[in-house]
Amino acid sequence: MSGYPIELITNYRAGKISRQQFTKQFSDWQKSRGINYDCKGTADRLGVHVEYRGTTATIRDGVLHFFTGSYIDPKTNCRRYIRSTAKSVFDFCRKIDFARNDGGAKWN
After folding, report:
1. Chain centroid to CA 76: how far?
2. How is residue 57 annotated by DSSP?
3. pLDDT in tens, 54-70
4. Of the residues 10, 30, 48, 106, which has the fewest C-beta atoms closer than 10 A?
5. Which CB contacts under 8 angstroms, 24+ apart, belong to 9-13?
6. Distance, CA of 52 to CA of 72 (rounded, Å)
């Protein structure tokens, strides 16, 4: 794990800063590097939804359901959609980020 604010994480684990301070400082660190994990929530007659980077997930039974991509099935020549689920908004954001990254996951 490189490139992360190790000092900030160490201070939080040692109890030197509170959870609120850690959340604020980590958010500031992400924003200073152009990383934005903000999601928007909406609700309508059809349910409650979370949107992140143009992908909308519907919340059903406490689980986020969304589509991460599509492909053409060679046997039937029909478009098939890749469905995915996440148990938290954090997982949802990570899965969208990895699905959008064409070259796979890239670490520092």
Report:
1. 32
2. E
3. 888 998 888 999 988 88
4. 106
5. none
6. 25
In this prediction, residues 22-45 reach a mean pLDDT of 78
**Beta carbons of 89 and 50 less than 8 angstroms apart:** yes
Strand 55-60 to 78-86 pairing: unpaired
SS3 105: coil
The rounded distance, in Å, linking the Cα atoms of 107 and 97 is 13
Whether pTM > 0.70 for this model: the answer is no
- Distance between CA atoms of 82 and 96, rounded to whole angstroms? 12
Buried b (16+ CB within 10 A) or exposed e, 59-80: beeeebbbeeeeeeeeeeeeee
- Are residues 92 and 50 in contact, defined by beta-carbon separation less than 8 angstroms? yes
Phi and psi at 83, nearest 5°, equal: -95, 150
φ and ψ at residue 53, rounded to 5 degrees = 50, 45
Phi, psi angles (nearest 5°) of residue 103: -85, 10
What does DSSP say about strands 40-44 and 47-52: parallel, antiparallel, or unpaired?
Answer: antiparallel
